[in-house]
Amino acid sequence: MIVAEGLSRPALRRQLRQARRRLSAVQQRQAARSLYRQLSQHPLFRRARHIALYLPNDGEIDPRPLLREAQRRGKATYLPVLNAWPRTRMVFQRIEPNERLKPNRFGIAEPAFCRARQRRIWALDLVLMPLVGFDEHGGRLGMGGGFYDRSLAYRTRRKKGHKPTLLGLAHESQKVDRLPLASWDVSLQATVTDRGWYAKPGGTH
């Protein structure tokens, strides 16, 4: 576990990204299998009909086995897609098995933009989110672009309703003792790693 005290968010982000990029291909495959075992039979995953995931980049833990399992079970699966304009906006678009993807401006594969196949984030059941760092209190440190935080900003205004469930996915090595959070950061109900679950107080498991 990394101690965050005395580190700025950019410095902490650099350290955590370097750590996950040092993982070998074998370690990444093992972590992906372990993550799959942690989540595939969990009630949150089994009950969800509309699930958003991501494609791994920059050493992120790989949720593609979960994506394939969700599709095998007939669930609707979604990937984040960046808007051409405004460039700060991200939407969630349904993806089918074996669909052709193309790289976005960050080099991350995504489906071709199609408004008819998009779903509002509040209408999803489960969002499996990438992250750079996490703590046991629901804190999430992202890549710094703010795409997820902007997409989920409505949650700070809503007093009722709990959709979607937000789960961070991470390698165990991305755990931090306590993250310095900004006012716009959206907290997670739990983070799932290759080793186990970290649910915030009042979160979910």
Automatic annotation (TrEMBL):
GO biological process entries: folic acid-containing compound biosynthetic process; tetrahydrofolate interconversion
GO molecular function, one term: 5-formyltetrahydrofolate cyclo-ligase activity
UniProt xrefs under SUPFAM superfamilies: NagB/RpiA/CoA transferase-like
Similarity field: Belongs to the 5-formyltetrahydrofolate cyclo-ligase family.
Transmembrane spans: none
PANTHER family: 5-FORMYLTETRAHYDROFOLATE CYCLO-LIGASE, ATPASE INHIBITOR/5-FORMYLTETRAHYDROFOLATE CYCLO-LIGASE
Source species of the chain: Stutzerimonas stutzeri (Pseudomonas stutzeri)
Higher taxonomy: Bacteria, Pseudomonadati, Pseudomonadota, Gammaproteobacteria, Pseudomonadales
Cofactors: Mg(2+)
Presence of keyword Nucleotide-binding: yes
Entry keyword DNA repair: no
UniProt-annotated binding residues for ATP: 140-148
This protein's name: 5-formyltetrahydrofolate cyclo-ligase
